[in-house]
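Could you please consider the sequence and fold following this short note?
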Amino acid sequence: MLSNYLYKMDKTEKRISLYSSLLIGLLMCSPKFMALRGQGIIAHFWHFNLAEFIIQVAFNVGFCYLLFYLNLRNPKAGLTVESVKKQTGWYLFNAILLLVSCLLCGVIQRQLFMSDQPRGIYWTGYLSRFFLSTLFAGVLIKIILLMRVSRQKDKENSQLKTAYLEAELGLLKEQLNPHFLFNSLSSLSGIVREDPEMAQHFINHLSKIFRYALAAQHDHLVSITEELTMIKSYEQLLKMRFEKAFLLETNIEKHYLHHSIPHLSLQPLLENAAKHNSASIKKPLKVYIYIEDDYLVVKNDLQEIAEPENSTGIGLANLNSRFRILMHKDIEIEKTKDSFIVKLPLTK
């Protein structure tokens, strides 16, 4: 079913209709100027009268604008018909409108100016002008309707694309949260056995992280400030797990704090660093978060575990998919001899 959008004239269409009506009206009445030539053929049948000429142009312009107005606002007109029967009926209505308008305007003009033209020539000329005006207006109306349908399809395609991206983002987040929860519960089970009091603090910080995840689940982009606030709780979880073997340093200039990144961008990177690298008191795992060339950089020391945990590959792939959808850019990943670096593009 076509949207009501197809039955409304916007400001641009109203201007097009008005200017087209003026152009058609002047074009149809321009032969009258030939009456100014005393020896011309037109001069034998009609003497140029400026007032009559203005009235005739006004009638023609008014008739054309009426055609535009009725055809562009009626759901049965032109391209918006739903059956051949309705379309035929609307064409018949336009034909009746043409005849009635021609007769009414012709009678009024003839009465006002007492034209001495032979009736046959007078009415043939009047009907010809209105008929040609209808043809020109009809072509322009079809073009406008085609433009409307094209704009409507573009709008619908945009809405479908948005809905698809929203669904895809939702699936990515649903995929991310259970992944993080399973890893956190695995860590919690070990802490509970060793230190029940620490387990309480662990649960407290874990609840803050999930509260943040749930509270902002409809906000796909969040500020760096919000992400860093959540990361403080996640940092505490990692410190409880690794004790003094984990260090996090952040160095973000103040004017970058209001820049935006996808929701839950930093947590998977810290999680990956903790999963794939060893950490000890003598050789702690260090993670750095800072700005470089308008990128938010997360860098960790590369201390790869000989036999790392089984990886599903969800973390970085998920993160890159969300950046591609929301930022139209991919994340950048660099691996050197000593470091693993992920660069996240920013938006204001």
